[in-house]
Amino acid sequence: MAQKLLPKEDIPEEIEAASYALTLLKVAGVNTWDELETTPLQPKRRAALKDIVLDEDQRRILEEYRQIVRLVCVGPPMVTISVCETCGNVMAVCRSSSTKCRRPKGCAGKTMRASAAARVRIEE
Ligand SMILES: [Zn+2]
To answer: Do the Cβ atoms of 8 and 19 come closer than 8 Å?
Structure first.
């Protein structure tokens, strides 16, 4: 059954990339992007992954933010990406860590973090 990933509105592309990656990794049944690229998937998992249709923009984002995509980990512990809403600092963080910006020079900003993107069935 073909599915697509739902993009969220008004989020930085770094967050978007990480949220797509988290969903794809979960579907594939692997922990990291490196694992996805190097490990043979179980046939069922491979089929499920194939059913997810990425649009052009989503493909571009996953390619362009490859470094970020490689940082996320399904876990546990889950590692995701956070972006400071004030200074734009991008960090890899655990799901349970503080939402304060950890920029060394001191930034009072709050961060936004990526969670797995939702999947919806494509109507045919
Ligand atoms: Zn900041």
So the answer is: yes
The structural domain count of the chain equals: 1
- Name the residue type at position 66: R
- State which residues have CB under 5 angstroms from ligand 1, the bound ion: 84, 86-87, 89, 101, 103, 107, 109
| pTM for this model (two decimals) | 0.93
Q: Please give the Cα distance from 93 to 120 (Å, whole number).
A: 27
| 117 Cα to the center of ligand 1, angstroms | 24
Compute the distance between CA of residue 48 and CA of residue 42 in angstroms, rounded to an integer. 10
pLDDT, one tens digit per residue, over 54-80 is 999 999 999 999 999 999 999 999 999
Which structural domain range is residue 99 located in? 3-121
Q: How remote is the CA of residue 112 from the centroid of ligand 1, in Å? A: 11
